[in-house]
Amino acid sequence: MSNAVPKDVKYHSDTLDKQVFAQLIETCDSREGCRNYFYSRFSGIEYMDNLKFRDIRDYLLANEKDEMKKFHVPSRTWKMELSETITNIKSMWSNTANKIKTYIRDNENLSDEDRHYLYYILKSNELWAQTLKTQTVNETRKLAAIQVSSDKKYLLKLLCRYTRKAKPKISHSTELKSMQLDTQMYSLEHGHLSIQTNKSRKRVHVDLKTKVFLTHGNIRIVLDKQNKRLTVHRCIYIPPNTTLITIKNELGFDKGYTVMLSCSSEREYGECLGDLLSSASKFVNEKNKKRNQYHSELRKLKKKLENKHLTNKERNAINEKIAHIKQINLSNKSYNRKRNRDKEIIRSYVNHEIKRMILTEKPSTIALEDLTFQSDSPKDKGKNFNRKMSTWIKGYIDERINYYAQLYDIKIVYVSAAYTSQFCAKCGARLEKRIGEHHEIGLCPNCGYINANTNAAKQVESRIHDKEITRYTNYKKVEQIMIDRYNKKLKKQQKSKKLKKKTSKKTTTATSC
């Protein structure tokens, strides 16, 4: 199905047997070695334009078959790790390109033609790789036709510098918890799962809580090392929901901490999200405050152990105290249980509100803010603010909006988020101040007090078809465009007022005659 929607289905196991758990850990460690080798070898620029799984696999089989035997895993296993590693490296380069685009967008010294030239190179992995390897590029006809204002050598060197800045360090797995299995590496019948290990013709058997039966398709196994449990993830494809008849309307969103979604229709969804996030943040804050005294006590006890004149009896007593504090006062079982419970409550609430919004609004297009732009506002606003922002799951909200949009066949458009909350959507004037407990009310010099969140959502909606303000327009340029538009509007209003006065004077003189 071309329009099918992917969905992750999970099956859980009970607590694993010690021997089974040890075999799974051993398998994970072996696969971790394969993955780290492939990461270190294929993450560089020499392979960025040639990341084809079949070509690399065939080369390794033909030339380095003995080299692959050093991992002591079946050939099917290292091939699966190679496939997954190459997929992750491709995602890494894609994310790097998106980050470079933001650097190019925010560089005020570049003209629109310069940006267009660099964006064109980033679209092609071949041109981009050629630039990084040689700092030159064989221009295509379309690329040569772009009239840049800067020196092309300078632009290519700038792209190399941005790549070094944006490219992350080579991935290195330290505690592998998941592994992908194809059809030949497992069997699952009536909830009985058997998994291939490193030893030939020996499999690990695990019983799942669900009596599921699978005969084909890849699965992913995630190992919970703390609770010694196993989760099977299976990707299924479901048909899109055609029962929702969407109205041909476009909807803009402003995502917030206190109110999850403010719509351009002046409705708001997820008003309780801020309370849920604050309570979760408060729990973490209070728990960590209480734990600080035990951490300081642990440090003191460990310093005492450094004393060489301690007797064995005294050393054993200190070690017993350390073990007691770790087990009783600093145990993570109840702490993680409470945190996971809070996360699930928040996620359930997010899903419920997004679905309610879609069923209420019935949009055909949804506009979302691209929150990667830079601004002049100070980033560090204190520990409490930073802790609250770390609990704000805007990435998860984005992910779920995209999922439900795909499920209900709704188009998603990302627009520039710069200055959406600082200008009035109705008259275009800059808001004078923000008031309210969460700065949710803005004061417009012309329109008076307005809802700042829904006002920002209207600005987001207006940028769907805005040709001047695109997703990658520099934020300072956006500000100038907004100011110029308002000034033009004021001039038109002044001209229309003068015309009205003239016409009114003519009519008065005509009537007097």
Textual characterization of the structure:
It is a single chain. Helix 4 packs across helix 8 (152-166) and helix 9 packs antiparallel against helix 11 (333-361). This protein has a five-stranded mixed beta sheet with strand order 10-9-8-11-12. Strands 1-7-6-2 form a four-stranded antiparallel beta sheet. Strands 3-4-5 form a three-stranded antiparallel beta sheet, covered by helices on one side. The protein has helices spanning 18-42, 53-63, 65-68, 75-106, 112-123, 125-134, 141-144, 152-166, 273-305, 312-329, 333-361, 383-391, 394-407, 452-462, 475-512; strands at residues 5-12, 178-181, 186-189, 192-196, 203-207, 219-224, 229-238, 250-255, 261-263, 268-269, 365-370, 411-416, 433-435, 441-444, 448-451. The chain is an alpha+beta fold.
Query: What are the low-pLDDT stretches, counting only 5+ consecutive residues below 50?
Result: 373-378
| Overall mean pLDDT | 88
Radius of gyration (Å): 30 Å
Give the percentage of residues in beta strands.
5-15%
Query: How much helix is in the residues?
Result: 40-55%
Report strand order across the widest sheet.
10-9-8-11-12
| Helical/strand content category | alpha+beta
Q: What overall form do the CA principal axes indicate?
A: globular
Order of helices and strands: EHHHHHHHHEEEEEEEEEHHHEHHEEEEHH
> What profile does the largest beta sheet have?
5 strands, mixed
DSSP summary, beta strand count: 15
Tally of helical segments:
15
Please report the distance between the alpha carbons of the first and last residues.
80 Å
